[in-house]
Amino acid sequence: MTKEMDMMEQFQQYVDGENKVEPKHWMPEAYRKTLIRQISQHAHSEVVGMLPEANWITRAPSLRRKVALLAKVQDEAGHGLYLYSAAETLAADRKDMIDDLLSGKAKYSSIFNYPTPTWADIGAIGWLVDGAAIANQVMLCRTSYGPYARAMVKICKEESFHQRQGYEIMMTLAKGSPEQKKMAQDALNRWWWPSLMMFGPTDEHSPNSAQSMKWKIKRKSNDELREEFIDKTVPQAEYLNLTIPDKDLKWNEDRQSYDHGEIDWDEFYNVIKGRGKCNKQRMAARNKAHEEGAWVREAANAYAEKQEARKQKQKGAA
Amino acid sequence: MQKELLQYTLRLGDNALILGQRLGEWCGHGPVLEQDIALSNIALDQLGQARMLLQYAAEIKGGDYTEDKLAFHRDITEYHNLLLLELENGDWAKTIARQFLFDTFNYFQYSALLESKDDTIRAIAQKAIKEITYHAQWSAEWVIRLGDGTEESHKRMKDAINDLWEWTGEMFMADEIDTKMLEAGIGADLGNIKTLWDEKVAQILAMATLKLPTDDWAQTGGKQGEHTEYMGFLLAEMQHLPRMYPEAQW
Amino acid sequence: MSNKDNWKIWEVFIRSRNGLSHKHVGSLHAPDADMAIKNARDVYTRRSEGISIWVVPSDEITASNPEENEPLFTPADDKVYRHPTFYDIPDEIGHM
């Protein structure tokens, strides 16, 4: 017991010294579990997050927009993959993680349970949802677990075009016809609050945060990140001449930051519970892809085994 | 001659666009992340080629034509892609089979276009051939892997090749436009390509432990603008937004 | 569910340009080496990050044990005479 406590203390000192933890290092079991849960949830969010945008690839209104959107959604598959890889360095199996997602046991970011009925939603997602994700991800580039931090660095580099892509769409719509401008405002109205919810519950209602901060998995609190995001985004909305749907939003000179209205946390918990418009649709799509892909993955394995056997036989004969 | 060149360029461009559009449907729904990414890469290559070709077609057409006007404001009879490419994706085997049958054709076609007397087409071919070489390799490997994989994958690949076979003949049927372009030294010789294609397809199917279909009935019309029912839905989906707001910029 | 549809893990190393070594960039899943190379190309070189790829099955990598870090690596720390700064050369001599 004392040995375990010594190790814990040493680990804490090591992390406090801004040192990175690497896969084979000793780590507290709870640290490992927290990481696996967080990284796999993050990976699931990337993969499920492909769906609301992917359904506009076939409907993008210009060829330039079509290739940009396809490249962006493809990047998200890549980001899911990098993250699953990071979790795999902790001896988690991608198959188990995906099974947990498909059975509903694992969570993913609730934002992807909102629908994308109009083209402006693609702009709003890139601008707001990716913007919020980037705020979180920039922080995670300095997370204490090496493989997670390295995956985040790569992801942040690639994400930088995503938000610009979204903002450009919003800009074009906001400067366009009255119908287009209306479309942009409507999308902002629907995505603003869910984007703020992406940072998670307020600090006082976020019980796991303290330990994650102590282990330097997380480096900033939910509320800190949320406020940074708001401060950065308000001027961007002003530039577009669009109105953020929060009548209580106003600049606080003392804090040098915006005060904002109350977030509807009932909505947040309802969507987490599965009551969003698209929860069922998203899970059905992931399950379908996985089930219909099973024979493909199996066939590729079978072929690889046959080829290997042939190679061995040839070697034996030579 | 400009009329034929325009038509020929549209055929090339529409092939790339319609296949890219179909492959785009897979994004987010692939059998495994790595292959979701792989197929999106191919889709992006196809769409890139489509844009270059439609930009060229717009230039030949003149006036206020653009790649987008051509992509989003032409009706079904004005599209000139091969019927094979507008068919629904089906399962992974069918998507792979279509890709392989077309990539193999496209590889020989663009190899020939490297010698085109039309500077723009030749330049596009020089860029595209590298992409198409990779696609042809990738899809051939998948045909072999599925043909020689499990019992189920073998059956699915066999069915896919058999189903798609009647849609392949159209690739090699030269009409007046093909002939004129060939005579002008601009277009590819479809007769030559057919010989090379037959040989390559037979070789890959043998490696995949699959039989070469023997029925040589061919569905035709795509190149001339006579399409399947699938095409109407594809265009409805692809074009609805620019059609609803024809004056808008996106 | 069986593991029949689970592809094995490969570590990916990319040479970003000639003159540089291959560098570990991450991992991916593939049933065999050929597909691992293709997957690496599609996953890790989408932005022209590389001109050469190595793939190695993850389970064939042998790694040193971090618990042996002290005997493995600390003995080198006090061998300062292996570094040029250990030697005093007058400034007038210039760069050496």
For the secondary structure, the number of strands of chain C is 3
State the name of the first-level CATH class of chain C. Answer: Alpha Beta
Query: Helix count of chain C, per DSSP?
Result: 2
Helix share of residues of chain C? 10-25%
Provide the CATH superfamily of chain B: Ferritin, core subunit, four-helix bundle
Helix-strand makeup class of chain B: mainly alpha
Chain oligomer state: heterotrimer
Strand order of the largest sheet of chain C: 2-1-3
According to CATH, the fold-level topology of chain C is Ubiquitin-like (UB roll)
Distance separating the two termini of chain C: 66 Å
Distance between the termini of chain B: 34 Å
Which overall shape of chain B is indicated by the principal axes computed on the Cα atoms?
globular
Write the layout of secondary structure elements.
The complex is a heterotrimer of chains A (318), B (250) and C (96).
Chain A: H1 2-16, H2 29-48, H3 50-54, H4 63-88, H5 94-103, H6 120-140, H7 146-174, H8 178-197, H9 209-214, H10 222-240, E1 250-252, E2 257-259, H11 265-275, H12 279-317
Antiparallel strand pairs in A: 1-2
Helix pairs in contact in A: 2-4, 4-7, 6-7, 6-8, 6-10, 7-8
Chain B: H1 2-24, H2 33-61, H3 67-72, H4 83-86, H5 92-113, H6 119-147, H7 151-165, H8 176-183, H9 190-207, H10 229-244
Chain C: E1 8-15, E2 23-30, H1 33-44, E3 52-57, H2 69-73
Antiparallel strand pairs in C: 1-2, 1-3
List the defining traits of the structure above:
heterotrimer, A: 318 residues, 2% strand, C: 96 residues, three-stranded antiparallel β-sheet, 23% strand, elongated
Plain-language structure description:
The complex is a heterotrimer of chains A (318), B (250) and C (96). Chain A is 69% helix and 2% strand. Chain A is mainly alpha-helical. In chain A, helix 6 packs antiparallel against helix 10 and helix 7 (146-174) packs antiparallel against helix 8 (178-197). With 250 residues, chain B is mostly helical. Chain B has a single domain (2-244), classed as Ferritin, CATH 1.20.1260.10. The radius of gyration of chain B is 18 Å and the shape is globular. With 96 residues, chain C is of the alpha+beta class. Chain C contains two helices and three strands, in the order ββαβα. Chain C has a three-stranded antiparallel sheet, with helices on one face. The radius of gyration of chain C is 21 Å and the shape is elongated. The relative contact order of chain C is 0.17. The chains are: A mainly alpha (318), B mainly alpha (250), C alpha+beta (96). Chains in contact: A-B, A-C, B-C. The interface between A and C is medium-sized, with 31 and 21 residues.
